[in-house]
């Protein structure tokens, strides 16, 4: 496109509207190419604004053009609190504006647009300033949207669309009014807008204050210039969009999908299915497929939908997670979505006053929403239930690892007043608890989206893996105790014990089942084999070891004491093999857990040994190898453990799972044949599940052939 010599030759019309024009191509680029000066005042440093600043800049630069940009930083609640606490106002405003810029240039086109201003910045031909309102001790934001093109003779001034959206660079419906100085009907308005900008720039506008920002912005401009120097494909904005507008951040307390988040197709499908089911349902998604981000995307879309139908609508989102460390993990992602959540756990006095203040603020429309994240324990308590009972507005409940809320003491606490409900679980069915499972589906409704591990691997959401089952024989004393415990279990069941007691660890049947599982988990032969396997991978990073809980049942039988399995593993890994390692258990303090995961990811730690704590929700994507010393017959546990190590990470192509499969000792007593056969059947169910999706399925199943032949288990 050849640059028009003067503004009056650029073909500017009196107005532009998305249904009639491509505002960028038809107006912005021709006007900029004909200008020697461009002034722009906008509400925020948003991606769309920054992207358009760089469009057509080559012709503008060649003409010796100069540019002046005024924007208003978005003040987060923390910024306002800093101002109230006496922090230097200029410092807070600059920090907020830099945050806006950093957020904007997460979009590649925005980074390219800002980077193309680098030459003008270096030549002192572009300046940035910040505008804000200061009146009677209150600080507010500047929201006007005007622009002025000049060529030394003529002026084109325009005002942007007042009805703006957050839908990105494409697909917005915008309208601008254009005033041309050479048109007698426009002359006065063009001059007035030009004067308004000059008054702004020179800090002469009542109420408003304007301060310099160029030096602070230089770092981000220069970094964007370096990062996008050869990204020529970003020079053209997509057709169909009208990005000459500011993109205001959503109202305080409302979630918004981050521009840098690539929502996968299957996640979009999950959200759509949930909406089609009146915003109720369960997402049955494999561990590692992004249930958290899918749920937050759904919550953000729900908030947008409610505000579209009622501008004053507010939404309270309550997220319930099993443990405190998962609450902290959720909080990190929620902050990425633009909201600082209220974390409700531990002492009621720490969170209750702030929670009640939040609900009051929502009711009085002081904020448009809020997010509370809490643990199952706090959620089920009277204080939290009283809090929920006082709320009357739009209410979304998200349950992480939703199967836990099917427990008797929690399912009666699920709030009926939550109009919108979303359950998340890789395995929503409760093990041996049909009543609890029915309670979950009765509350959250049906499974509206499902993605198993096989599909997740096929779609690239999880990595491929190899599976190596290693046979570990019980010693004769363990086999004796296993058979004795199984006989007691059989007698209780034959006597009519309710099988629902299998879910109650404190019942006689529950205690026996746990004891039998512990015999398998603590089998003595596992440690010697683990040592050999670790020796093979002594130079391999990112290894997880899942240990059995507690101590070997034989210690209790003999009335003696001894180390836990995890203590023996740590002695082996750290002291004998000299591999940097740490334990991650329920006893590990919360701050230490975060440090352990950080050091593991950076390879300062080679091994993490855990008991259960890594089963639900904890992100350990860097893990490459998992040793399953303990894995119950409960599908939830072994499916979650597999998903934990299949999460994608940079440089990670596949994972290795080493499973310690317990088998009866060779030459066992024929009387115990059926007991031993049942033991194997339970172990083989897990092996079949793991082997089916492994890259080495054939090799895996061959390992088990001799044992299958001995016990006639080719039907398993």
Automatic annotation (TrEMBL):
Domain Helicase ATP-binding stretches: 272-446
Pfam family, one: ResIII
InterPro entries: ATP-dep_DNA_Helicase (IPR050615), Helicase/UvrB_N (IPR006935), Helicase_ATP-bd (IPR014001), Helicase_C-like (IPR001650), P-loop_NTPase (IPR027417)
One MF term in the entry's GO annotations: ATP binding
Assigned keywords, A-Z: ATP-binding, Helicase, Hydrolase, Nucleotide-binding
Boundaries of every Helicase C-terminal domain copy: 539-705
Database matches in SMART domains: DEXDc, HELICc
Annotated Gene3D superfamilies: Endonuclease Chain A, P-loop containing nucleotide triphosphate hydrolases
UniProt keyword Coiled coil, yes or no: no
Protein name: Putative DNA repair helicase
Organism field: Actinacidiphila reveromycinica
